[in-house]
Each structure stands twice: as structure tokens, then as C-alpha cells.
Amino acid sequence: MIKIATALLATTLATSILMADSIVLVKKTDRDVTKLTPESKAWEHVKATTVHLYPQSAITLNDKRANAINRGAKAKEAKVKAIHDDKNIAFLIEWSDGTRSVQRGYKSDEYADGFAVQFPVEYKNPEKLPYIGMGSDDRPVIIHLQKAIEEVYEPNGNGDVSMQQNVLSKNVFGKEAAEYARRVGALAVRDYQRSFVSEGFRSMTEIKDGSEKFYADMEYDANGWRGTLIRPIKDEYLSLKGVFPVAFAIWDGEKLNRDGQKLLSGWIAVKFSDYKGKDELVTVLTAAAKGDVVHGRELIEQNGCTGCHQISGLSGPNYAAPGLDNVGGYSTAAYLRESIVDPNAVVVPGYNRNAHPNTPWYNVVDGIRQSTMPPYPLDEKSLDDMVAYLKTLKSEAK
Ligand code: HEC
Q1: Model pTM score
Q2: Could you tell me the distance, in angstroms and rounded to a whole number, from the CA of residue 232 to the centre of ligand 1?
């Protein structure tokens, strides 16, 4: 019986390893891509790449209801397209969502659907990319965030409060009233758009000086959301050349998603179609893990990894360390290997101090985060096997 189960496990695991996301090829266009919207016809001529987004199961929120709703959350497939005009690059991301959740005003018990696109500031060494999702110490990421909000009437920084008065109090009628409504409408903030530079959860710094410009938009229809993100290929923070990594995140307001609770892709290689240089990044990001999955699982149990980490089926919820249920979906094999032999290389930021004050994920020594996970300097074969097993830890797309 156990033998059969193991054989079955081995086959299902072997197939899931083959399903690495492919790369996003970016062709050049003569059009100005900053004019593109989610609705633009031009997108019909661009080839789509399927990417997978996995529930971020490393961290737990304080909100019990949100945690319950998201327990056992499934991965999602999204379609990504990209095109450039030498100055700017435009991404389109399409994903299904049965409900349109839009945040109204500043209500704090409602959460909006939204998406984010992020880029590592440095990506020369594909084996040492930032922590996926939020960046990590010394490995910053640029995050562009777009959330669906209802129009908010703000003085818009102009202090123009008079324009926020109810039209009935303005003593205007007919055409004049319509003109008043139009001018008020023009002052509305329709989008929640922010750029951040981040080196870990809670270290997100909004870039407010306008140096990190981007255009984003999201449109909903019966199939779900289509979002566009358009930004310079090169600016003060980023230089996107040849081949570079990108990652996507989506939030589902209906499921009370916010902050770290979201679906997240791994680093995906984006390549300019006329690029002829080295492909090392593509190799690292699309590499299937080599190793004996079944033996890897045995090693994980023998080495006590499950004493700290939750791996559904092997161990229950445990706040002593990040949950690993989807770690194979959003992490590269190189990252997983580094996590085992050198936990301090990337210290997963942002553990929930309220949920588990007695089991910190790291201690701060001389201003530097020191992981509470011991390093495991195992032999190459054991590491390959463990990584191969960890790469299978991910929920399948619905
Ligand atoms: C004493 C508790 C403990 C043990 C035992 C332990 N870990 Fe960890 N692990 C942690 C903590 C805490 C973190 C988060 C801080 C960090 O990034 O090092 C972590 C992080 C990780 C990560 C990164 C997770 C992410 O979301 O990016 C991986 C992968 C990992 N551990 C794998 C393992 C494996 C495999 C073993 C067994 C060989 C193991 N751990 C044993 C505590 C532990």
C-alpha cells in the first residue's frame, strides 16, 4: 500500500516538475506603447505566455477570517503579453476573477482586487535574485501596484475644496450643473497607483518624487481582469536590458486579500526578441529541478525541517517558520538550495510578531537579520533531492 502510494506520488510529482513557466518574449513596435490600454486592439497581435500565480503561503495575517477563507487556496493561471517601443515597455496581464471588488472610499473592511508587477534592481547574478514578493536586505525590488478603487474626490493637492461641494448647494442648473459635474469628475482620483522600492515586508518605501513613473490601468469584464503596466525601459532605478526577471502578484478583494496575502508568480524571464546575448538567466529561471523527489521528501523529514515548517501532509500549521506549501511555485531551484545551505543569504522578512511572538524568524544582531534556521551543509546529491522535492510543493491551478 505504501509502495503504491509512493509510486503514485512519484508520477504525479514528475509531471508537475515539467510544468515550468516559459519565457515572455517582447517584440518591438513602432507605435507609442504608453498609449496602450487593457482594451487596445494592438494586444490581439501579441503572443501570450501562460504564467502561474501561487498563494503566498509563507506568512499568516492577524485576520482569522481572511486566513480561514484562504486556507487551501488554489493557484491561478494568468496570461501575460509584453511589447516595447525602445523607450517604454508595456505588459498586459489577464486573470479570471468571478467578482469585481472595488474599494469604496477609504472603507477599511473592504478590499480591492489589484495587481502588482515587480522587477529586481540587480539581476546580473540569476542565482542571487531578491526574495520573491517583497525583495530582501541588499536585494531591492521595484514594485508597481495598481488597485481597483472607486473614484475618490480629493482636493487633488490643489486645495480645491470648493469643487467637492454637493451640486445642489451650488445653485446651478442644466448645462451649468453638467459643467460643474464634469469639473468635479476631472478632479477625481480613479486609480490607486503606487511605486515602491522594497527590501522586505514592512520596508516598502513609496517613491513619491515622480522618478519611478509608470502607467497602469485595469478593466473588468465577464472573464475577469485585464491590467496594463507600462514603464520606462530605463530610468533612475532600473535598466531593463536583454533578458531580465519580472514577477506578478494579484489580490482578490472578495477573499479579503491584502498586503502579503495574495497570489504570486515566481521570477519569470522576459527577453527582448532581438536580444542575442547570454541566456543564463533564462536557463536558471526555467531549469527543472534534477533529483530524486521521493528521497528528497525522506531527507526533509529526517532533517527535522517539518519541526519548524508547515508542509501540508507532512506537518501542520507552524508559526516558527514560513509555510512551504507553495514554495516550489514561486521560488527558483537556486533560491531553495541557497535557503538550505545559507539561511542568512536571504532572510524571509515580515513574520507576524503577534501570531508567534516566541518563535521569531530572525534576530537582529548589529543591525543585521540573522535567521533562526540552522544551515544544513549537506552533500550535493542530498541537496538536489531536497530541492527537487521542494519544487513540487505548490497548489495546482484551478
Ligand atoms: C529551527 C526551525 C527551522 C528548521 C529546523 C528549518 N527551518 Fe527553514 N526556515 C526557518 C525560518 C525561521 C525561516 C525564515 C528565515 C529565513 O529566511 O532564513 C526559514 C526559511 C526557509 C526557506 C525559505 C522559505 C521562503 O518562503 O522563501 C526554505 C526553503 C527553508 N527554510 C527550508 C528548510 C529545509 C529544507 C529545512 C530542513 C533541511 C529547514 N528549512 C529547517 C526555520 C527552520
Answers
A1: 0.85
A2: 37
